Amino acid sequence: DLAPAAGRLTLTYRPQLQAAADPLADNHDETHFIQEISGLFDYIGQDELRRGRCLAGPHMDDIEIALDGVALRTFGSRGETRTAAVALKLAQADLVHRTRGLRPVLFFDDIFSELDKDRSRELQERTAADHQVFIATARGEDVAGWDPPGRLTWRIDAGRVTPSP
User: Fold this and answer.
1) Contact in structure between 103 and 130 (CB atoms under 8 Å)
2) CB–CB of 79/119 below 8 Å?
3) What is the pLDDT of residues 94-125, one digit of tens each?
4) In the beta sheet, which residues pair with residue 64?
5) What CATH architecture is 78-164?
């Protein structure tokens, strides 16, 4: 909804241990899969002990985000990448609301610097009514004219936080 004309956004889960999953996809049996993944963990395990940190597991996996089949990490503009990140954050907030009945607090840091005015306005409209939102920005004009109910503004100058009109 932030940029309806932009195209179709897709997410693809990319496990770090894809090499271990490939035999399973190639119709090998479960025993072969277990041998493959155990071998990888044995190989990685020695390196993990030497380095003192975990080098394999789901925390090392990735999610590829693509717009009309083109990877945003490689080919996306800063605005497209930022729009995709915001869209995912809003989708996450909607999921929490639907499953838990709660509206999460949204935090955005310098969110408007890479968004055009239309996308900025859409983000403001989508969040103003239903969410508590914290926005950090170095440019006051990014939120000028945006006056959701209960808006409070603070200014940080020389390490001091003061209310701003």
Assistant:
1) yes
2) yes
3) 999 999 999 999 998 988 888 888 888 888 88
4) 12
5) 3-Layer(aba) Sandwich (3.40)
